[in-house]
Amino acid sequence: MISRNRRTFLLQAAGLCAALASAGEALAAAPLVDESDPTAASLGYRAKAASVDTAKFPKYHAGERCANCRFYTGAAADAAGPCPMFAGKTVAADGWCNVYAPRA
C-alpha cells in the first residue's frame, strides 16, 4: 500500500512540475520583431513607421502603422502586439511593413 501511494505522489508531482513549466512559457511575452530579422527585412518592417524609406517602399503613406493595420491583433492601447506575418513575435504598434492593409 505504501508503494502505491508513493507512485501516485511521484506521478502527480511530475505532472504538476510539467504543468508549471509549460505555464511559464505560455505566460512569457512574445519577443519583439527585430528589423534585422530575415522576414522583417524582406517585408520592409520598421519599428517606427516614420523611418520607412519611401523611395524603396512607395506604398507607404503617412499615418499608416501596425496599430491600424487589419493584420495587427494587439489592443489599440498596447505598445506592441501580435501579427500573423511574424508568427511567435510581436510588432511595434508604431511600426510598418509592406504588407500593411488598412482596417475596414
Automatic annotation (TrEMBL):
Domain of life, source organism: Bacteria
Domain High potential iron-sulfur proteins family profile: 27-104
Keywords on record: 4Fe-4S, Electron transport, Iron, Iron-sulfur, Metal-binding, Signal, Transport
InterPro entries: High_potential_FeS_prot, HIPIP_sf, TAT_signal
Summary of subunit composition and partner proteins: Homodimer.
Functional summary from the UniProt entry: Specific class of high-redox-potential 4Fe-4S ferredoxins. Functions in anaerobic electron transport in most purple and in some other photosynthetic bacteria and in at least one genus (Paracoccus) of halophilic, denitrifying bacteria.
Official protein name in the record: High-potential iron-sulfur protein
